[in-house]
Specification:
Layout (H helix, E strand, L loop, with lengths): L43 E3 L1 H10 E2 L34 E2 L2 H4 L2 H20 L7 H23 L6 H5 L11 E5 L2 E4 H12 L28 H13 L5 E4 L2 E4 L1 H5 L7 H12 L3 H9 L5 E4 L25 E3 L2
Parallel strand pairs: 7-8
Antiparallel strand pairs: 1-9, 2-3, 4-5, 6-7
């Protein structure tokens, strides 16, 4: 493998109200191979190739201005309305799945990147990495696996059936899709590792779900040096969009994705309201609690969380990609 890495001491981002201290996490519920960390470790993973793929295939929609997309129009000559008709359909980044389905070599490259990345902990145990480097590793591995799996299912408009599954045919999130340090893992297994090891509501915003009602796919890879700032930015984008959370009178309408991550909010309504206040400019949300004797209701509505976040452009990836992940340490 080419030596693309530089020796680097990566500082941990454990300060700040949004980032829960590591002491709160309970690693006893995850495999021994995934426990532990080395603060100040010089180990760094470079994601140059994955970064190039994201920049070539992700359409950045920017921050929501909370304007409704309006009513979808029927095609000429028919009354039928096709595709996403939700008023949130213009929000959130999109990924060009045809870049993988129409160009099989690109999908092979994604699979090779996933396998090379997943193989690193067998050679360099995770306990020798610092926690930010581990966090970036798990987030990138999860998102690579999601994109690979969804590309294999494309074209689809809704993920409803893929999310449910059955005992004989597990849903996409319960399939064993990657092997790390001798453990066959599903997307839900990786989610559990993240929740148990970091105990922070921020981690949920780094996990691309493939649908409009979830966090956006980012147009750059997570890195140990930037992961905290990237997660905060992703959280702010999602919370300040109609597909994530929107106040409506005394009610907060939120994405079902929060319900899927309920373990991150033990005191459900109070934790969620505090979380939203910390990420938005809606002073009225906190002020409303002092103006009313009764606390605002928190209504969970199901936004179109199963509609695929896809762009239609089919683009070939740069031919110079070497699809290799390397690490270096001293």
């Amino acid at each position: 493998m080419p030596q693309k890495m530089k020796t680097l001491l990566v500082a941990a981002f454990l300060a700040g109200g949004l980032w829960s201290p590591a002491a709160l996490a309970d690693e006893s519920k995850i495999a021994e191979e995934f426990r532990g960390a080395t603060p100040g470790s010089p180990i760094e993973i470079r994601y140059d190739d994955w970064n190039a793929i994201l920049q070539a295939t992700v359409l950045d929609a920017g921050m929501s201005n909370r304007d409704s997309a309006g009513s979808a129009r029927a095609e000429t000559g028919t009354r039928a309305v096709r595709g996403n008709t939700s008023d949130t359909r213009n929000e959130g980044n999109r990924i060009a799945f045809p870049a993988f389905t129409d160009h099989p070599d690109n999908l092979v490259m994604v699979r090779e990147i996933k396998e090379e990345l997943a193989a690193i902990p067998a050679d360099v145990p995770l306990k020798h990495w610092d926690k930010n480097e581990q966090l970036a590793f798990w987030l990138n591995l999860y998102n690579i696996a999601v994109i690979e799996e969804l590309s294999a299912e494309y074209p689809i408009k809704s993920l409803k059936k893929l999310k449910s599954g059955s005992r004989s045919d597990p849903g996409l999130w319960d399939r064993k899709v990657v092997n790390v340090a001798g453990h066959a893992l599903s997307l839900n297994d990786i989610h559990t590792i993240l929740v148990e090891k970091w105990d922070s509501s921020l981690v949920m915003y780094g996990l691309f779900q493939g649908y409009v009602g979830g966090p956006s796919i980012q147009n750059e890879a997570f890195t140990g040096a930037t992961v905290h700032h990237q997660l905060v930015a992703a959280a702010r984008e999602f919370v300040n969009s109609n597909r994530g959370m929107r106040p409506k009178g005394s009610t907060l309408q939120i994405s079902e994705y929060y319900k899927e991550n309920k373990d991150l909010f033990p005191n459900w309504e109070e934790d969620l309201k505090a979380h939203f206040v910390s990420l938005t400019d809606y002073a009225c949300m906190s002020a409303s609690r002092t103006r009313r004797k009764s606390k605002p209701r928190l209504t969970i509505i199901i936004l179109p969380t199963c509609l695929v976040a896809r762009a239609q452009t089919a683009v070939p990836l740069p031919a110079t990609l070497r699809h290799s992940m390397t690490c270096w340490w001293v």
